[in-house]
Amino acid sequence: DFYFLFYNHQLLFWCCLVFCAFLFYFVYKPYIISIFDPLLFSFIITSFGAADVLFMYTTHSIKSYYLINFTLTQFAFLGGLFLLKPFNSKKHAYEMKEFKLPFEESIMKSFFIICSILLIFIQIQVYVVAGIPLLSSSRLDTFTGGSGFGVLSRVIEVVQIFSVTLLFYFYFNSHRIKIGLLMRIYSYFFIFILVVFAVLSGSKSGILTILYSAFTAWIFSFNETTNDKVLRLIKKSKLYIISFIIIIALVVISVQSGDESNLNAIESLGMRFIFSGDVYWYAYPNDVIIGFSNYSGIKALFTDFIGFFRLDSWDNLTGHFGVDLYKYHHSTIVTQGPNARHNVFGLLYFGFWGSCIFSFVCGLTLTIIRNLLPVILPKNFISMCVLSYLYIKVAPTIDTDPILCLTYIDNLLIVTPILLILLLIVYYILFNNNAKSINSDSLL
Predict the structure, then answer these.
(1) Segment among 13-22, 192-201, 366-375 with least mean pLDDT
(2) CA-CA distance, 94 to 145, in Å (whole number)?
(3) Helix (H, G, I), strand (E, B) or coil at 76
(4) pLDDT mean over 270-295
(5) Cβ-count burial of 32 within 10 angstroms (0-12 exposed, 13-18 middle, 19+ buried)?
(6) Does residue 242 have a pLDDT over 70?
(7) Whole-angstrom Cα distance, residue 192 to residue 157?
């Protein structure tokens, strides 16, 4: 229905989009550091989602009740975001400080190798056991079922960002970090593997994760030399980078849809943005959202935590209501559906005014991650990796899907201690074998 509504009133939709994008641009502009900032993509998606709501209201497809609630929750979200000033790398001099441990560079490189090798072997294992997500009817089915196999997805999410962030950190700081021949060869191989994995993942934004990791590596290793180097690189290659991302996205869409026409793929990519607010036109028209009011908000938020630690059976958990919304409208057994945006999530679980409070908390959480943690956390490569993960995975999903946001936080809390234990083992080996560590450092 929304598809035909859009095609019958295209001019009106584009007017709504321009209006919403204009407003959000001035709101988000002080908080967006670069065109490769993950928050920029979030701003674009939010603008399209807001345009969907305004468009439906102007075409009399939804009640004013939903427009008012959406507006209030969006203001509440922004109110939480505005409580802290935007983080400024140069002002706060987020330059890496030494751990003051022997063989620090060797430890950092070892941590990169640990994470990257884990990523390669686990991802290949997933392809062998569960198949390639790009060729599946739904890539979300790859890790579902509660059999324990999904723990591999948690490891992949974390080690990918950790390893790629460190890789670009080495590159941006090559003037002071020595990279040996073996490490250089391995780095080129790893970049190639990352691109292949990004395509096979079936996610249109898979390649963006690599780009965002480069962005956070720059932000959290700031110094004048690095800044000038990266700014020259961005100015020189941003057009090529954006073109490459679009091409990868079109390839993924073409394979998934089975269409060979580039025009269809381009149209599908454009509609993906226009349909960014799909949860709104699944839940708002005809008061469909009321039929899901028996859900428990707290239980829904912590579904992943409860299920992973077996505090309750996965069968007894409500799951993601976006999937239920999709199945309400479509007769299918495929696991897919709209993201649970904070506006709809809050209204569904906490009521009209409760949703405003929930959205404010979401905005406050976003500003803490983006603007407070980089200032108060220690300036070392572990903090950089954690912040990179929070910037790329957690911060953008606070707005688009609080349930997924907490899943990403669970992944970080579960996997990071394991990686740190492996790092401590490596450190112990290096510290107690001086000769071996020196030889390894010359190679790495």
Answers:
(1) 192-201
(2) 42
(3) helix
(4) 81
(5) middle
(6) no
(7) 18
- In whole angstroms, what is the distance from residue 130 CA to residue 119 CA? 16
Q: Is 15 helix (H, G, I), strand (E, B) or coil?
A: helix
Cα–Cα distances in Å, from 26 out to 37, 77, 78, 338, 400? 16, 15, 12, 27, 20
**Residue type for position 346:** G
Residues with Cβ within 8 Å of 319's Cβ and at least 6 positions away in sequence, in order, are 303
Task: Classify residue 88 as exposed, middle or buried by CB count within 10 Å of its CB (0-12, 13-18, 19+).
Answer: middle
- Closest by CA to 388, choosing from 86, 111, 173, 159, is 159
SS3 284: coil
Amino acid identity of residue 200, one-letter, is L
Angstrom distance (rounded) from CA 231 to CA 34: 10
* Distant-in-sequence, close-in-space partners of 221: CB < 8 Å, separation ≥ 6: 94, 95, 96, 169, 172, 173, 384
Distance of alpha carbon 71 from alpha carbon 400, whole angstroms: 15
Residue (of 215, 166, 173) closest to 191 by Cα position = 166
DSSP H helical segments within 82-180, as ranges? 89-92, 104-130, 151-172
Q: What is the CA radius of gyration of the chain?
A: 23
Assigned token pair, 119: 């990523």
Residue 342: HSE in the Cβ half-sphere, 13 Å Cα cutoff = 31
Does 11 score more than 90 pLDDT? yes
Q: Which of 314, 172, 312 is nearest to 234 (CA)?
A: 172
- CB distance 78 to 367 below 8 Å: no
The pLDDT score that the predictor gives to residue 16 is: 93
The residue with greater pLDDT, 130 or 57, is: 57
Q: How crowded is the C-beta side of 72, counted as CA atoms within 13 Å? A: 17
Give yes or no for a contact between 62 and 283, defined as CB atoms under 8 angstroms apart: no
| Predicted local confidence at residue 96, as pLDDT | 53
Of 7-11, 60-64, 200-204, 394-398, the one with minimum mean pLDDT is: 200-204
Identify the DSSP state of 55.
Answer: H
Q: Who's near 70: CB < 8 A, 6+ residues apart?
A: 50, 53, 280, 343
In terms of Cα–Cα distance, which of 331, 335, 321 is closest to 283? 321
